[in-house]
Amino acid sequence: MNILSIQSHVAYGHVGNASAVFPMQRLGHEVWAVNTVQFSNHTGYGAWRGPVFPADAICDVVTGVEERGVLASCDGVLSGYMGDAQTGEAILDAVGRVKAANPQALYCCDPVIGDVGRGIFVRPGIPEFMRDRAVPASDIATPNQFELEWMTGVEIEGFGAAKAAVAALQALGPRVVMVTSLRTPETPQDSIDMLAADGEGAWVLRTPLLPVSVNGAGDAIAALFFVHLLESGSAAEALSKAASSVYGLLKRTSEAGSREILTVAAQNEFVTPNRVFSAERV
Ligand SMILES: Nc1ncnc2c1ncn2[C@@H]1O[C@H](COP(=O)(O)OP(=O)(O)O)[C@@H](O)[C@H]1O
Ligand SMILES: Cc1ncc(COP(=O)(O)O)c(C=O)c1O
Ligand SMILES: [Mg+2]
């Protein structure tokens, strides 16, 4: 498949495209990577350098790809971290152009806003843009628990509330939603859950909680879920494959005591995860 991936890039470490591109390539897909920023490192370090690209620079790169006459062969658009709310306009413009060239193409929006520990970590205007423009334009959305609660206003106190929040997000647009890092009173202390829903049902997947706090796992899992969903058409299967790969990746990262995820060293986990977790219908 051919995936247009519009996200951040970092020189050092693995978040944004620097986390998402290689796993998709390792699974045999062509990735047309367009970078929304080029930072030295992820913002979780508190300090970083490098530019946020203006929306017209992003549009220009997409126009160049369009001029190669290849957009009709694009199977999906994946978006993630936006440097600035204006970046969002360039992303939605790209989605529109891809869908005009290939009406079968799907748009997966990873609405990167923040997370439970750090709160909102993107520029003002981006959270609202994700909720009001990007997610409604998407076919698939992949928020973490914090992002889902922020966008829907639903407090997730258990699986029932999680399903209600997912339904509220689906009502905005996307047919498929995958929620990452779900920790509710129903989640055992030593575990972490994920939930995926499509038009037919909802599934939960539970893995052990690893002693790591890293950035970029969300970007990898969104990319993996998207390509597996495009290939299989099954949210449950895509959830199982993506979560098993990311668990393997984070287990290696945890054993190595690394602050950055071991995207390259643990690459076999993308193809044949060591441990396979399956999703249960809820
Ligand atoms: N400490 C952890 N232990 C086990 N799995 C984790 C851990 N942190 C992240 N993950 C896995 O990575 C997925 C994505 O990470 P997450 O932190 O939710 O993404 P984001 O960075 O977008 O917030 C989670 O759903 C979970 O499967
Ligand atoms: C530049 C950049 N891109 C993307 C992300 C998102 O990372 P995550 O996958 O942890 O949500 C971050 C988070 O700090 C970031 O700084
Ligand atoms: Mg994320």
TrEMBL record:
<keyword id="KW-0547">Nucleotide-binding</keyword>
<keyword id="KW-0808">Transferase</keyword>
<dbReference type="InterPro" id="IPR004625">
    <property type="entry name" value="PyrdxlKinase"/>
</dbReference>
<dbReference type="InterPro" id="IPR029056">
    <property type="entry name" value="Ribokinase-like"/>
</dbReference>
<dbReference type="GO" id="GO:0005524">
    <property type="term" value="F:ATP binding"/>
</dbReference>
<comment type="function">
    <text>Pyridoxal kinase involved in the salvage pathway of pyridoxal 5'-phosphate (PLP). Catalyzes the phosphorylation of pyridoxal to PLP.</text>
</comment>
<dbReference type="GO" id="GO:0000287">
    <property type="term" value="F:magnesium ion binding"/>
</dbReference>
<dbReference type="InterPro" id="IPR013749">
    <property type="entry name" value="PM/HMP-P_kinase-1"/>
</dbReference>
<keyword id="KW-0460">Magnesium</keyword>
<protein>
    <recommendedName>
        <fullName>Pyridoxal kinase PdxY</fullName>
        <ecNumber>2.7.1.35</ecNumber>
    </recommendedName>
</protein>
<comment type="subunit">
    <text>Homodimer.</text>
</comment>
<feature type="domain" description="Pyridoxamine kinase/Phosphomethylpyrimidine kinase">
    <location>
        <begin position="80"/>
        <end position="258"/>
    </location>
</feature>
<dbReference type="GO" id="GO:0009443">
    <property type="term" value="P:pyridoxal 5'-phosphate salvage"/>
</dbReference>
<dbReference type="Pfam" id="PF08543">
    <property type="entry name" value="Phos_pyr_kin"/>
</dbReference>
<feature type="binding site">
    <location>
        <position position="8"/>
    </location>
    <ligand>
        <name>substrate</name>
    </ligand>
</feature>
<keyword id="KW-0418">Kinase</keyword>
<dbReference type="InterPro" id="IPR023685">
    <property type="entry name" value="Pyridoxal_kinase_PdxY"/>
</dbReference>
<feature type="binding site">
    <location>
        <position position="147"/>
    </location>
    <ligand>
        <name>ATP</name>
    </ligand>
</feature>
<keyword id="KW-0067">ATP-binding</keyword>
<dbReference type="GO" id="GO:0008478">
    <property type="term" value="F:pyridoxal kinase activity"/>
</dbReference>
<dbReference type="GO" id="GO:0005829">
    <property type="term" value="C:cytosol"/>
</dbReference>
<feature type="binding site">
    <location>
        <position position="110"/>
    </location>
    <ligand>
        <name>ATP</name>
    </ligand>
</feature>
<comment type="pathway">
    <text>Cofactor metabolism; pyridoxal 5'-phosphate salvage; pyridoxal 5'-phosphate from pyridoxal: step 1/1.</text>
</comment>
<feature type="binding site">
    <location>
        <position position="219"/>
    </location>
    <ligand>
        <name>substrate</name>
    </ligand>
</feature>
<comment type="similarity">
    <text>Belongs to the pyridoxine kinase family. PdxY subfamily.</text>
</comment>
